[in-house]
Write a structure and sequence with these properties.
By secondary structure, the protein is an alpha/beta fold. The chain has 2 domains: 4-187 and 305-399, 3-Layer(aba) Sandwich (Aminopeptidase); 192-301, Alpha-Beta Plaits. The protein has helices at 4-28, 37-50, 109-125, 148-154, 214-232, 271-291, 311-325, 343-346, 380-399, and strands at residues 53-58, 62-68, 76-82, 133-139, 165-176, 180-182, 185-188, 192-199, 203-204, 239-249, 255-256, 259-268, 295-301, 307-309, 330-332, 351-359. The strands form 4 sheets. An 8-stranded mixed β-sheet has the order 1-2-4-3-5-16-6-15, with helices on both faces. Helix 7 crosses helix 9. It is elongated, with a radius of gyration of 24 Å. The two termini are 23 Å apart.
Length: 401
């Protein structure tokens, strides 16, 4: 009689071509955050085909489904995939290229969704061979604040009953297909948005003494703000403050503008320091600008929390990954200052967010995330569907002991 791992591997291989077609359909029909109507309908139809009970319209276009094994109340593992795309024009020359101009699955959420549908297929076929319940969470709007995770949580996705743990996955072009990895403990940063308007008195560039120079003031403000990270933060706490957008209201080679508008981000991995840093950023900006004769409107929008992988659960999942993939294909990943709304789940129940390799440099597949040529080696879907199914059942089996 086949052992469970062999059955999962065989089923993952059997459905691989079907899941590839699912992924290609999703890739060709991307939808932006909070607009995932057709994606949600497609997921619902696939779950109906499998006979999996589910509810739609949660937190927008979110879906929650359940697979019941023997003794369903003996434990629950939740699995999450996000569904939204990005406002990027695709430049890949593939048969399944985006048909929605200016919208693309450049962050791999088409892979995440098709993966979880594959996992649903595998686990549904094995429901007579495990005890407990699998909760399937298909989440909208990961890419846009306030994040679909927060909305689904507010609507009870982690209640009735509370899952024992939750597992999420993300594509990772820094690794080859067939590999995977995770990082126990703090892994990804919180992400706050910063919106600033610096106001002064514009005028002729040759007569700066008759102006309140917003360009000079803004440059001094940015330099001063950078000292908050370099001089006020504990060096053991990762932090980054970046301004990625500066626009003037007017201005030219010889014209000092009345106003400058800035947008930026502050990221860290410690909530007390996050709150303290917000106050320091506001105080410093106001102090510098006012000292130089200007005024400033400064707004910090608090975004996603930092993502922390539960240490004990991480060790169990990492061992599960070793057993399924082989130690040579499993890695401990570095800390990332990027953000993920999966972090909301982490602050409610034990959670693990792992990465799956998607590149194949021999096939010239390895473009970075959030770029117009991002694509994956679709063999990653055979690995990911099997791996997530294995980890989920290993955790359910552990809950029976």
């Amino acid at each position: 009689m086949q052992d469970l791992k062999t059955k999962i591997q065989r089923k993952a291989s059997e459905i691989w071509s079907e899941i590839v077609e699912v992924r290609r359909h999703l890739h060709a029909h991307p939808e932006l955050s909070f607009e995932e109507k057709e994606t949600s309908a497609y997921v619902s139809a696939y779950l109906n085909k499998l006979g999996i009970e589910h509810r739609t319209g949660i937190g927008g276009y979110g879906i929650v489904g359940h697979i019941y094994g023997n003794n369903p109340e003996s434990g629950m593992v939740a699995l999450r995939a996000d569904m939204d795309a990005l406002p990027i024009s695709e430049e890949n020359e593939v048969s399944y290229c985006s048909t929605n101009p200016g919208v693309m699955h450049a962050c791999g959420h088409d892979v995440h969704t098709s993966n979880l549908l594959g996992v649903a297929n595998i686990l549904n076929s094995l429901k007579n061979e495990f005890s407990g319940t699998i909760r399937l969470i298909f989440q909208p709007a990961e890419e846009k604040f306030p994040g679909g995770a927060s909305l689904m949580i507010a609507e009870g996705v982690l209640q009735s009953p509370v899952p024992d743990c939750i597992i999420g996955m993300h594509v990772y072009p820094q690794m080859e297909a067939g590999q995977a990895g995770l990082r126990p403990g703090p892994y990804m940063a919180s992400a706050d948005e910063i919106y600033v308007t610096v106001k002064g008195k514009g005028g002729h560039g040759a007569l700066p003494h008759d102006t309140v120079d917003t360009v000079m003031i803004t440059s001094q403000m940015i330099n001063a703000l950078q000292t908050i990270v370099s001089r006020s933060s504990d060096p053991t706490i990762p932090s980054v403050l970046t301004f990625g957008k500066i626009q003037s209201k007017g201005g030219a080679t010889n014209v000092i503008p009345d106003e400058l508008y800035l947008e930026g981000t502050f990221r860290t991995m410690n909530e007390p320091w996050r709150e303290k840093a917000h106050k320091l950023i506001m105080r410093t900006a106001n102090g510098v600008v006012e000292a130089l004769g200007g005024t400033v409107d400064f707004n910090i929008v608090k975004g996603y929390p930092f993502l922390v992988n539960d240490p004990e659960l991480s060790q169990w999942i990492y061992d599960d990954m070793d057993e399924y993939l082989g130690k040579e294909n499993n890695q401990i990943l570095p800390i990332r200052m990027t953000a993920e709304d999966f972090a909301y789940y982490c602050h409610h129940i034990p959670a693990v967010f792992f990465r799956i390799g998607t590149s194949n440099h021999a096939k010239k597949l390895g473009a970075p995330l959030h770029t117009s040529r991002f694509n994956v080696d679709e063999k990653c879907l055979e690995t990911s569907t099997g791996l997530m199914s294995w980890c989920a059942l290993q955790r359910l089996n552990a809950l029976q002991k």
